[in-house]
């Protein structure tokens, strides 16, 4: 969905995180909803487009650590150590409606991670929320590198 992609792009802009989009997207990146969700942050996001999943996989460097996010995965996203400095961490999210292809997940089960949820009430978490949850866990474990750490009242003249 364009709105989810725009929201994810905004999260990437705010966290210095690169966004990889794997085609086919199912919508145009010129879509007004996509632009509205990303607001005026598009020039602050490093986006790489890949023609398909094999092209994305071929682009990964030797230090890449890839994870697949699915509610059916055997372990939680918080059970991984993301603090190895020389690694680049990548996360693939599927569609909210269908998730990632089951054969792909079965073939890569050791890479599958889940965000716990009560699936008796909902089919899936919102995609942009899921991306933010995972991004911020990685950054939390790394002590939020290169992100501003302002304190309450830091700029207040009445200290």
From TrEMBL:
Residues noted as binding S-adenosyl-L-methionine in the record, renumbered to the chain: 69, 94, 115
Listed GO MF terms: RNA binding; tRNA (5-carboxymethylaminomethyluridine(34)-2'-O)-methyltransferase activity; tRNA (cytidine(34)-2'-O)-methyltransferase activity
Coiled-coil ranges from the UniProt annotation: none
Organism: Liquorilactobacillus satsumensis DSM 16230 = JCM 12392
InterPro entries membership: Alpha/beta_knot_MTases, SpoU_MeTrfase, TrmL, tRNA_m1G_MTases_N
Protein name: Putative tRNA (cytidine(34)-2'-O)-methyltransferase
Pfam families found in the cross-reference section: SpoU_methylase
Main location: cytoplasm
Entry's localization field: Cytoplasm
Top-level taxon: Bacteria
